Every structure is written in C-alpha cells, then in structure tokens.
Amino acid sequence: MLKIMIPTLMMLLTTWLSSTKWLWLNTITSGFFIAMMSLMLFNMPADILLLTNKWMGLDYISSPLLILTCWLFPLMILASKNHLKNNPMNRQRTYISMLVILQAFLILAFTATEMIMFYIAFEGTLIPTLIVITRWGNQAERLNAGTYFLFYTIAGSLPLLAALMILNNHFNSLSLILLNTFYPMSFSLNMLMWAACLLAFLVKMPLYGMHLWLPKAHVEAPIAGSMILAAVLLKLGGYGIIRITFLLAPLMKEMSYPFIIMAMWGVVMTGLICMRQTDLKSLIAYSSVSHMGLVIAATLIQTPWSIMGAMALMISHGLISSALFCLANLNYERTNSRTLILVRGAQTILPLMATWWLLINLFNMALPPSTNLYGELTIIISMFNWSNWTILMTGFGTLITVMYSLYMFLMTQRGPTPHHLIKMTPTHTREHYLILMHLLPMLLLMFNPSLIFGGM
C-alpha cells in the first residue's frame, strides 16, 4: 500500500517544484506510473484481507475501486489542461494539488480498516472537491452548487459520526475485522444504528430523493470535478454500504425494504427525467443517479450475486460516466454551450469524435458483451430472485436507459449542423488519447470480468 500512498503524496512536491514548462507532463507521467503500480493489486488472492499495517488493508472489494481511483487521476489532469491554460501558474499548481490531496483521501478511505479513519477520509474528500467546484467552476451558480454539495454531505454524515461513537462505546473498538466477530446489539439500538450508518452513504450515492445536490454539482464543476464525482466519489457511497451492511446484517433485513423500493423507483424516475433534459451535463448526471439506484438496491439485498453485480456496475459506470463527461467537456470547449439543440450535427465536422460518442453510448446502454451488461444482468437476476415484482422496474429502467442514450447520441451528433459550428476547431491527439484511456480498460475487462466481481 505504501508504494501507492507515498508516490501520491510525493506528487505534491512534483507539482510545486516542477518548472513551468514541464509541470503538466511531470504530473501526468507520475500519475500513470502510480496507476500502473496499482494494477498489481489485481493479483491479490480473493479470499484474504491483505493487511499492510494495523489501520490499512485491502481485499477483493476495495482493490478494484482503488485501482479505478489511481487510473482516473492522470486522466483528470490530462482533461483539465486546456481548461486551465490561461490561469496563472500558481493557480494551476493549486488545482493539481487539490486533485492529489483528493486522491490521497480516497486511497485512505478504500484501505482503512478502522471505521473512524474511514470516516475522516470519507469527509476529507469533501474539502478538495468543494474547492475545485467553487473556484474553477464555469458559471456563477457554482457557489450555490457547492453549498448544496456541502450541506447535503454534512447533514448525511453527522448521524454516521454519532453511530460510530455509540459503536465505540459499546464494543471498545471500531476495527472492521473485530466488528465482524462481535455479537449484535439490542434490536432497537440496531435499528437506529442501521439508519444512521447508511444515511451518509445513501446521500453520497445518491438515493433518489436525496439526489438534488448531484446535478447541480456536476453541471457547475470543471471537468476534473465532474469526472471524480461521477467515477469515484459516488462509488465511495457504494463501498461504504457494502462494508456497513455486512456488520449490521443479522437483524436488519426488513429495514432495507423502503430504501430498495425508493432506489428502484429512482431508476425509472431519473431515466424519465433524462429524457427531457436540455443540458448535456445534467443529462449525464441524472443517468448516474439512475445507475446508482441499481447499485443501492443490489447492495441492500446482500446476496453474493447482487454484490458481484454492484461491484461490476460501479467500476464500469465509473469509466463510462467519466468518459461521457470528457466528451461533453470537449463539446463545451468548442461551442461554449451545453444546450443539446445548439451542439447538433457534430458528426459531419468531427467524425472520429462521433465514433467515440457512439462507442461510449453503447457501453452506457449495456450492450453485450460489455461489463455494464454483466453488472446490470446479475443485479436484475438477483433482484428478481429477491422479488418477482422488481422485474417491472428493472426492465422498464433498462428500456429507458437505451432510449436516453440514443437520444443523447442523436441530439449531439446527427441532424443539421448549425452555422455557428461550421468553424469549430478540430480535435487534438490529447483528446483522443484521453477517451481511449477510458475505453481501453472497458475493452480489456470484457475478456476477464471476474477481476471486478469482488471475488464473489
């Protein structure tokens, strides 16, 4: 673990000591070296917890999410280069430093074996993300979006802190390894603990009804903020749910029913909301809520197949939603507009970019044999096994996903090209490389999807 954590922290020195000319190249290269080192974690045995010290460890659930975090870091810097080129050099260094600090907190969160350390890292991700959104966002509404993001997250996390204090008083330990062996508490206390522990993660995912902060944060965030929000920070909520539900599982199966119903209802509702969006980034943000609804339902029913599907869908969605935000940003940099009706007909001007749009939308709608399909199919089967009625929601949600994915592709790429797009600047090698680095892991994982099945 230290061979990933220490180079990540050393990147702060790289950022501030690199010359102006080599700043971006040095940080991107260092990020890719860390990403390549993290790939070794795929070789970890599936049936053990790899402890590096008393407070940090890895297992088959946290290692794919950690690799996803490390892989996306250099891509975030690569995507931000054009956005920051006119900023003073100190602001560019500060921006990259915020991303480095965010990655360090995420590594701590995914490797923590002490619940209080996990909570500190979980909350710590809020600070650099908030700074990136409110300082480098595109419009004045970014302050409003930052306020929503801050207060929703804090309001959801306070009950988790109180619950952890009660657990510590009850068991004199917050170690994930020891808590698994303890006898459960009384039923009434366990009910409160269950609700308090899960609230923070359901807001972070987010569950439909607690999702109002997400579209605002996504729309106003710069490209790196949108990528890290969609790809990793939402998965932090899913990871927390998987960890907590295993601790409080024995008495609390019935408590999850209303949340599963809300999650399934959210899959359909947010899909329908996507169908009437005029803002491209808002459409992609609502599609994330729809996909995460499936993950919430799967993690709460706690069967091996559902956890397997949730892990596969989290990793696949992380790469695909990040790629969609990159493509939306490439459109925005050329047209200065996210309105779908104003960016039509781009296929005739940028044909290779239209190919990327098509491929990524096919992955987003879970076309065979993508890992999105593996994830969604295993979740749908496990949900059907839990209750036959869920097939109505999951089937309808899958149909709507195909509809809004095709709608997004047709609205951005087909149709008559507006006159103001005729003189659009051509695409750069950097941008094609950025999208390829999102698609390459997806194509490789199709040959061995068991790597992201959580060892189930």
From TrEMBL:
GO terms for molecular function: NADH dehydrogenase (ubiquinone) activity; NADH dehydrogenase activity; ubiquinone binding. One of its GO terms (biological process) is ATP synthesis coupled electron transport. Its EC number is 7.1.1.2. One of its GO terms (cellular component) is mitochondrial membrane. The chain crosses the membrane at residues 21-41, 61-80, 92-110, 116-136, 148-167, 187-207, 228-249, 255-274, 283-301, 307-328, 349-367, 387-412, 433-453. It catalyses: a ubiquinone + NADH + 5 H(+)(in) = a ubiquinol + NAD(+) + 4 H(+)(out). It is an enzyme of class 7 (translocase). It comes from the Eukaryota. The keyword Transport applies. Residues 112-401 form the NADH:quinone oxidoreductase/Mrp antiporter transmembrane domain. It is a multi-pass membrane protein. Pfam families: Oxidored_q5_N (PF01059), Proton_antipo_M (PF00361). It is found in: Mitochondrion membrane. Core subunit of the mitochondrial membrane respiratory chain NADH dehydrogenase (Complex I) which catalyzes electron transfer from NADH through the respiratory chain, using ubiquinone as an electron acceptor. Essential for the catalytic activity and assembly of complex I. Belongs to the complex I subunit 4 family. This is NADH-ubiquinone oxidoreductase chain 4. It comes from Necturus beyeri (Gulf Coast waterdog). The lineage of its organism: Eukaryota, Metazoa, Chordata, Craniata, Vertebrata.
